[in-house]
Amino acid sequence: MSPIPNPPGRPGQPWTADDRAAWRAQQTKKRSYADDVLAPIDALREVAAVIPYGELDYAPDGVYPLLSIRSHDWNDALPVALVTGGVHGYETSGVHGALAFARDHLGDYAGRLNVLVAPCVSPWAYERIHRWNPLAIDPNRSFRAGSDAPESAALMQLVAPLKGRFLVHIDLHETTDSDESEFRPALAARDGKVFEPGTIPDGFYLVDDSDNPQPDFQRAIIAAVAKVTHIAPADPDGTIIGSPVVAPGVIEYAFVPLGLCAGITGAKYTTTTEVYPDSPRATPEQCIAAQVAAVRAALDFALQAG
User: Which residues of the chain have pLDDT under 70?
Assistant: First the structure.
């Protein structure tokens, strides 16, 4: 049922602490957070402020500093935009899209909008190309008070002093073939449930907040991204990943009840992007460009609409 090598636990039973430890022991480092994320952030210090907001001590794997990037000309009289990437560490274009936006476009909003970027919320998972943290917890279901995911708790602590000032938050994600081949089966195994196969949409789509829908905002982002890469069509039943399509390329989730990152700010305009990097119609460069286009369209719309 599950493609996890030597899956821990027993079918039909949730993982124990020993099962989680066995799963963690199977995970290996495949790329470098220091090289891919910390070095590019360090290179931005002349054009942006780099603000540490914690560290993750995941011995014996290492200690991971958490860094955010923000506008040099921060002005407390201006509204705030939050850009997050790498909440799921394996979703590569979210991390590199956030970094590319900070490098190339942060200055575009000087004097109009304070911009805060957290480009890689889950660095341990980034290195292991995984959805979970080393505790086998999904950070993007853990943004709530008393969170048991240190990645989520650290980001919420960063955001807390700015609550009430956020105008827009865009959270950068991917939907990959490995969601269906690896991560959803792993979730079922972890929770002692039966894996039910689903589908992976071919193309870019957005997730709006069902408790605060902003259809014009989502539409503006879709229009911008459509110039870069293709938009995911609905499945024959009118859904994308099992959720009803409410507009071309847009579905809805309840952000706060589900503990999703996009619900942490209370901003008027919020969305989660979903890029499909495994499409034969998209390159890695297009995926990053799509994330950047989505961020720019989100911030531009929010500034214009207010």
Answer: 1-6
